[in-house]
Amino acid sequence: MYNFDFVKPGSVADAVAALAGEEAQPLSGGQTLIPSMKARLNAPGSLVSLTGIPELVGVCREGDTLVIGAATTHAQVARDAAGDFPGLAALAGQIGDPAVRNKGTIGGSLANNDPSACYPAAALGTGATIVTDRREIAADDYFQGMFTTALEEGEIITSVRLPIPQASAYAKFVQPASRFALTAAFVARYASGVRVAITGASENGVFRWAEAEAALSSDFSANALDGLAHSAHEMIADLHGTAAYRAHLVGVMTRRAVAAAGS
Amino acid sequence: MPKDDGIGASTKRREDTRFLTGNGKYTDDINLRGQTYVHFLRSDVAHGRIKGIDSSAAEAMDGVLRVFTAADFDSAGGIPCGWQVTDKHGQPMQEPKHPILAEGKVRHVGDPICAVVAETYAQARDAAEAIEVDIEELEPVVDMKAALKDGATKVHDDLSSNLCYDWGFVEENKDAVNEAFNNAAHVVSLELTNNRLVANPMEPRVAVGDYDPWGDSHTLYTTSQNPHVIRLLMGAFVLNIPEHKLRVVAPDVGGGFGSKIYHYAEEAFCTYAAKVLKRPVKWTSSRSEAFISDAHGRDHKTKIELALDADHNFTALRTETYANMGAYLSTFAPSIPTWLHGTLMAGNYKTPLIYVNVKAVFTNTVPVDAYRGAGRPEATFQIERLVDKAARELGVDPIELRRQNFIKPEEFPYQTPVAVVYDTGNYHATMDKMLELSDYAGFEARRAESAARGKLRGFGIAHYIEACGIAPSNLVGQLGARAGLYESASVRVNATGSISVYTGSHSHGQGHETTFAQVVAEMIGVDANSIEIHHGDTSNTPMGMGTYGSRSLAVGGSAIVKATNKIIDKAKKIAAHLLEAAPEDIELKDGKFSVAGTDKSVDWSGVTLAAYVPHNYPLEELEPGLEETAFYDPSNFTYPSGAYGCEVELDPETGKIDILRFIAADDFGNIVNPMIVEGQVHGGLAQGIGQALLENCVYDDQGQLLSGSYMDYTMPRADDMRGFTVDHSCVTPCTHNPLGVKGCGEAGAIGSPPAVVNAAIDALHRAGHTHITHIDMPLTPSRVWAAMNG
Ligand SMILES: Cc1cc2nc3c(=O)[nH]c(=O)nc-3n(C[C@H](O)[C@H](O)[C@H](O)COP(=O)(O)OP(=O)(O)OC[C@H]3O[C@@H](n4cnc5c(N)ncnc54)[C@H](O)[C@@H]3O)c2cc1C
User: Fold this and answer.
1) Domains in chain A, ordered, with CATH?
2) Which one, A228, B142, B210, B563, has least CB within 10 Å?
């Protein structure tokens, strides 16, 4: 790790001001940023901690929407979303281990947009709105490929607004070593139709599986996916699985998510 | 009933209190006054020529004391190899120099080029980034077979090729073996890989070098399984420091699994630099550094063939193995694929003719050496996979095929065609025990239940033999070992009767402080709490060879028994004097000496006090004091064996394998502490299952390590295991050591991989995937799925 300055502002305005500084970077749970700094892969001049800003923490329901503060930990989401949005709570409960869940946050995960991360599937699979210090971004516009998002320099996520589905589930097949998603599917059913988001599989990061959405919108059952197969084109191939294997898992995990969501 | 803390008691491990409360004293806990820190700048390319090193900017940086390069070690030797293998033509292996810091070339990712010593670790690391190393990249040698092709790039320019040795065993039998294959009714063959593993002990390696200019003496604190071996190798061969000026201390060590046997460059560096700088020098490996600097394990590619007669008796076995040595020869590397592997190729069977060929190859990868089991897992995996395949091809029951070819209980001692003599064993008994404990009879019902859920269930078995308790010194000397493999013990009885035992074995998780105390407590009949076991410091223990190869109780324990017997003999003479009787009439029981047939007695502390306050004492015949040293050199290896059963459930949609049951029925001979033995088996099974399903050390074709962190190297975790059934009720005591013990440290890692793979293949075959005859380890979901859909 290299030397850096550390500030812990108490308001979003102060945080944004601090981030205007030279080589400043927001720090949330630190579960991604700190390890990369320890490996000397990342060298911010100053870290602006977001976890001391009260308005960034918490889970609350506003009508049919669940609003989660960006600095809310995975553990808190697993606990506090369980009643209103069990599919999301279950997803949060499968991230990492207890230490990671009690430090890592939804805002950090969405800002990082790791192609194998879990939350991007929920955000895209619900058609969430990413709220920042300066605007609101639809999930469909927010995710722009591996580790790439619509966020501008110095822009911070303040909250995420997720439409609560009638039924939903996340089916995760873990990469054996890291236990991030090797391939995982988030399926959410709304009156307006079904959304299916896949993470872990694609070289382009999280994506929606349009054919599955169409099939499930007319018949929300695993059988509706019969005969559907995802192409292996632009799927990730690495030590843990070939592109063909991941493409195959897209189908398996989507079915399992549908079955788990019930009707 | 065993005594609370004597032989046979599951005494709780006394060392655990300090470990579990965070009070162990590990090498990294040692911080000396004026200590400095070293950071090694390591190669990030697999193969390259060093054209120049400019460290001037680094040397000018804050806190930097000095930057060392190979030039600073002109007068030092290379890191020595402790075993010389002779090839099939009678020629010695090719043995390249292994410098402390890279000389002229870098030969693997992680090869240290410069060492930066600074006031703080961060300063050393910062300065290392300011060093400019000009490296001309060379073609990396990664694949073993390609490395042996004519004209292949050489890892070592001064060697004739990348072949370390081409070993044939038993070379004289080669023609007879081939003849047997020509005459065979059936021949079954299999090509397989024994996957490369990283040991990953919980505690990474650490070294602290210290120098006392007034006494011109050195101390090295290091994470070692064998401090005396390090003192010998480093003192005599690398730094030219005589033993009396060099103390090596290995305090609490957090696991080794073989990787902490070897003498490493970082140890020599810290020892040497402490003298140059006149300040202590400390190195603490990071986990990432451990992946590219700790010796790796396994990495064999083998073709194995079995010949059978018309009645399915095994008539001959033949193998050809390529064994990866990595870039340099680690301390015991050459012996692993040869003497610790070839000699085990008979397995539990009466195969009369065996020929083993091993080609050891240099590549641009981290050196490979012993890892839990060392050669024996490789042998067992080949044999037990092949026997299973043979049963399938011949359409016979794999259990019956094994039983038919087992060495029978009445046939011991049994001379194998691969040099060793098994003293005892009863393979039929362990097999029966395992089948009973696994409810083999109920398997079909369980399989049907899995099938109803869309899952494939399979049952796999493996029966292993291993050779532990290394080893008779004269024998290993003939085989090329450059060391003896005895063990030492000193038993110092104190005036009030408490006992301090100094052992040359080293404990790094095995629980010796408990087990060894139980042995002495049983022999003398005193409370184990009055006995303290000391190890790990060359300044107070006699020259010992350390802990590996499941040798500690069989060899180190035997030395303790020998020394304790000397103590008892002398104590009886003292007691005889005090009781005015003849020594032959003195009996020792429950810590009391009595004259046979009388009620005259003196207790233990009465005798020990007399030894040190010899007022009423036979001074003309007996020296005062009560302290004895013994060295024990075993007359043979010990041969633990056992039957392992594994029941798996395979998800055909994803290829994921779950282990539902694992049953281990081992014959370890006599057992001192059953609980510790169970723990050892559990640990071994976790690592064996890890190898079979999870762990894999992978290089790409550029020699870059793809699995260089826990993000990609899959360590086994608690939820990968569902509990084990472990049994050691089948006992055929070792015939040649005083405790009748065999060793249990590696068995789990040796017997489990073939059991797991056999179970997976069984599940696939029962579900109709009969084209799948083998899947290489680790059987990851993607590999299994690819095999099913290939
Ligand atoms: C052992 C381990 C296992 C894990 N397993 C999983 C898993 O199974 N699934 C999974 O999804 N993740 C997993 N993670 C990642 C974990 O969920 C991280 O917490 C998450 O990816 C990042 O969140 P954080 O709060 O820790 O962010 P940080 O590490 O603090 O920050 C990450 C990045 O986001 C930026 N950032 C943070 N907050 C904001 C914000 N509000 N606005 C703008 N930018 C911001 C930071 O500057 C940084 O670039 C694992 C991590 C570890 C260490």
Assistant:
1) 5-49 (3.30.43.10), 54-163 (3.30.465.10), 167-262 (3.30.390.50)
2) A228
